[in-house]
Structure prediction request, 186 residues.
Amino acid sequence: MTWWRRAFPLELAEEGHFSRREFARFLAVVSAGFTAGIGYLWLRKKPLEGASDPEAKHAELPVALGLAADLQPGQSRLFKFRDEHDACILLRTPKGELRAYRQTCTHLGCAVRYAGERLECPCHLGFFEPDRGFPVQGPPSRPLAAIALEVRPDGSLWAVGELPKPTLESLDRRADCPREKTEVTA
Prediction:
C-alpha cells in the first residue's frame, strides 16, 4: 500500500473513473466551445451599448420629448430613440440641466435608472454621474452613450442625434473625485 493511501484511507466507488487523458480531452472540448462562441460574437459585432448600426441606411430622425419645462430638477423620463428597442433616459440634473443617455449600462447591459443625484445600475451597483455619464462607482468603466438634445423656440424638447463619447483627456477627472476634494491636515 502506498504512503498516501495510508495517510488518506478513503475508498470511493468512482475513484478511478476519470483518467488524465479523459480530463485533457474534456478541457480541449470546453476550450474549443469557448473559442467558437467568441468567434460567433466577433462575427456578429453587435455592441451591448446600443451604438448605431453602421450598416443602417436610414438617418436618425428627431424624436419629440414634450415640453422642456415639464421636467423638474431631479426628475427623469424614459423614451425610445432609434427604434422600439433603443431605450433612453431623459433627466434634469439637480443643477437644472437637461441630459439624455442610453439606458443601457456599459458593464453588462442592464437598465440604468435615475436616482435624483446619480444614474445607477441595480445589477452590480454601478453608478454614473448625471452631468457627463461617467462611471463613478462599481464595475462600469466606460461612460454612458449620450443623446443630443435641442430645445426649440416654442419650448419643445427634441432628441436629435448621438453625441460622441467623452474621453478622459478632455476633462479633469480629479475635480469630481470626492476623495481628492477633502483636505488632509497634518
In short: The chain has two domains: 18-47, 63-164. Helices lie at 3-7, 20-44, 178-181. Confidence is low (pLDDT under 50) at residues 178-186. The chain is about 20% helix and 25% strand.
